[in-house]
Amino acid sequence: MDEDLKILLLLNSLEGQGRKLWNAVERKEISTDHILECEIKMLVSVGATELAITEIKRKTEEKWAEKEIEKCDKLGVKIISINDSDYPTLLNDLKSPPLVLYWQGEASKFPSLNISVVGTRGASNYGKKMAYKIGQYCASCQVGLISGGASGIDGYSHSGTCDSGGQTFAVFGTGVDVYYPQSNRKLFDGIKEKGALISEYPLGITGQQWHFPRRNRIVAALSERLIVVEAPLKSGAMITAGLAVELGREIWVVPGRIDEASAVGSNRLIYEGAYPLVDLPEFFKSRLKRSLGCAEKPDSEELQKRYSLSQDEEKVIRILRQRSEQTVDNIALEVKMGAADILKIIAILSAKGIVCSSGSGRFSVKV
Questions:
Q1: Domain boundary among 75, 100, 131
Q2: CATH code of the domain in which 214 resides
Q3: Is the model's pLDDT at 142 over the cut of 80?
Q4: Using CA atoms, how far apart are residues 179 and 189, in angstroms rounded to an integer?
Q5: Confidence band (pLDDT; 50, 70, 90) for 309?
């Protein structure tokens, strides 16, 4: 068994304490052996609580991680650790990315382009209709839709994608084997057929009040654009929008009636600078045109002939074509280069007229 996976599963099950201990391992303040052997003095030295140490000792003795892997195998659940090559790179933008993702569904990975959709559980008929239409457009444009699987806006956006044969991904605040809400059971089974159910929580974990705000950070991080359909001023959707802003994501909002409580928060986002989503065909066919690869662009060989590109310049262009608008840090992570080097390359590509600023510290290709 992969020892790192066993350690990461164990630490992930401790939630906040697990992240603290993994950070200590990465800083080489402790080793994975110190954790597996439950060396109390070393664990205490990096801030582990008595409760966390007790849990580590109990779960190690009971071979909890080994049993968790066996359960996942039986249920067809894939475990993706933060060390794996297929771990979603966008999650690394988070201050505390999940150590482990549980992944259940036919999709082995996300499509090349995704959007996240959030909104209130108490949606109006208009909100439900718009959420469903957004899901339909995602399916027709081969854009993955990410949401939280809740009732209301989440559920209708997932349904619109599923019913139109697209890929959608529900991020749970429970284990992937615990359907919440139960009323969406049929929907969750449908999501698994082409997309996936995703969670950072171990199998069998039920929904606790604090799980869902933590789940929201994953929904916010997993795509470059977040669409808010309807959101009261104090709501999980507004929390997700705030997290997305901190991550530098693009925020789009479906305008609502100003006398509807369900739209007060989402309308406020527009007032504060979010993009109003007033035309779905324009958004999906024009705004995302570069990301979807719909526009005719010269291929790599033609670009090389035209601009005499270096290998590093070609790498940056390829990432920007694949991922659309990206920050310097995102590009550096993808191509495994330093941020300072990326800035130099972007300056050269900008001078050649290949790359331009997209605002908010982001860059995109013009060709």
A1: 75
A2: 3.40.50.450
A3: yes
A4: 10
A5: confident
